[in-house]
Write a structure and sequence with these properties.
globular, mainly alpha
Length: 118
């Protein structure tokens, strides 16, 4: 388990999902249980099919966040946000996580919050 601070646009989205949710999970299955990763990937591909975002993966979002944080706060912030064991891992690929990421809420809100509320 890790604690990450969420920017306001993500808190707003999460609260809207929570009000309509059948479960305490952020993205529960139809039965209210955790989704299997393979099902999440399949549903993700189906949801983006025939849109300008087709082919974009959750990993692409992680990479975008890492790139933004590295540019704004340095490699250590990106490493901690993604939960990597070392800065070298952050530079290469994604592996084990730390307990808490940095407070990146202001940077994420400034960069992504404007488009998330539209």
């Amino acid at each position: 388990m890790r604690d990450l601070k969420l920017p306001p646009f993500a808190v707003d989205m999460r609260m809207r999902r929570r009000v309509d949710s059948i479960s305490e999970l952020v993205f529960p299955s139809a039965a209210g249980t955790p989704r299997w990763p393979a099902n999440v990937r399949r549903q993700w591909r189906q949801a983006l099919q025939s849109t300008p975002y087709e082919g974009i993966t959750p990993r692409d979002f992680r990479k975008a966040v890492a790139t933004l944080l590295e540019a704004e706060q340095g490699i250590r912030a990106a490493q901690e946000q993604l939960g990597h064991a070392s800065e070298a891992v952050t530079r290469r690929h994604y592996v084990p996580m730390v307990n808490e990421g940095p407070d990146a809420t202001a940077i994420l809100e400034e960069s992504f919050g404007k488009t998330a509320s539209k």
